[in-house]
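Re: that chain you flagged

S.,

Sorry for the slow reply, it's been a week of failed gels. I finally had a moment to sit down with the sequence you sent. For the record, here it is as I used it:
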Amino acid sequence: MTSDSEDKTTEQPARAKPASDDPPTVVTPSGDTPWQRSRGRRVSVHLLVIFATLFTILAIFANWTRQQLLDTNQWTKASSELIANPAIRDQLAIYLVDQLYTNVDVPAEIKSVLPKELQPLAPVAAAGARDLITQAANAALEQPAVQSVWTEANKLAHEQFVQVIDGGNSYVSTTNGDITVNLGTILGKIATNVGLPSTIVAKIPPGAGQVTVLQSNELKQVQQAAKALKTSSVVLSILAFLFFVFAVALAAGRRANTLVEVGSGMIVAGLAVVLLRGAAGDAIVSSLVTDVSIQPAASAAWEIESTLLEQLATQVIVIGVMLIIAGLLGGPAKASKAVRGWFAPALNGYPEASYVGVALLVLLFLIWSPIPAASRYSFIIIFIVLVFLGLYMLRRETLREFPGAATASGDSMRAGGAKISAAFSRAGAAVKSTTSKAAQDVKERTSSHKEKSSGGGSESQRMADLERLVALRDSGALSDEEFAAEKTKILSSDS
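Prediction finished late last night. Pasting the structure tokens below so you have them in one place:
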């Protein structure tokens, strides 16, 4: 049997717990930065860098093709290098001599000048003369005057080519036939230089030695390809740049390391282009040229024509190295912080001098121009903006990490200035003392010299007066008493 108190206790309902005044606990992802908290962000950054690297490779090839095919200055420069190459010059000489023999009946011309009994030997003589004419043609192609004709012919043809691609103008029509490189002038010069008779030179037709660059029936396709090439070079370059920028912007909390990753991607892109250049050259030469004797000239032509490709790849590598240096300088590693600490006194205490120093370095880099892009206004503007933005970010980081570096730098500079000033003061005092002593010595020596000169003059005057007195006495003009009195006056003036 239970007590009443126990029954009441049993029958009472359970009391509800009082509501807590504390806010509900919010569960947050682990990590201090967006980079650490978001796996998707990390994956996105890496994908952006990978795609940007691929776009960079494609952009390098697109820009090289556009400049090599559509830039007349680049085309002319490559043409002058082609004619200067011995292997290419040999093949050009062979081609021009072939054109001479094709358009002129050289055996018949030789037969017409030979005696009747030697006329059957005209074909043999023409065949033997072919090698001699080829050697003479090669020697002629080495002359600057002939090479300038070659360069000018290629320049003119390319200017017409570009005008036709762009739709033509009042001088060049898009429906006016083929675009050719006219080597007839060079052929005529060679024929004259090798000593061929004027009758043979006159028989060379105007169309001899013409190389077709573009046929009229190919015009529409070439115009479309050129337009696509211009567009793709710009679009791919912009995409590569934006993807790299987005990757750095998205990597909050890890931007310095991402900058190193971006620089590494650019280096990978440049090296890939260099390797592809070598592999593509071998494939192109072997597929287009089956004659083994011509392959050295074709290989040399590819090397010259793809020089710009290598230059573009090199400049991408150089920019990648700069980005890696910038990323390492701003990174969280101890070595990076130590380097920032070394720069901190100058950056924090003397910002104006820091900006001026960096500006001088940028100017020297642009004057040196180790990469082709350093001479282009677009690259110069972007390069200057990025350099000074990086300097601003670096100074902001040093102010945060080393706030006392500016005061310490000012104190050390003032102490150093005081030491330098004291040293200059001591040096000035020493110079002044030495100068005073030297001046006093000169003054004393000058006074002594004057006294000696003055004394010497008085002695000479007395001797002259005594001689005059003796002459007057000997002549009877003065008595002995007068002579003695005057002599005493002269001698007494010495004292």
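What I noticed first: Residues 253-406 form one domain.

Talk soon,
D.
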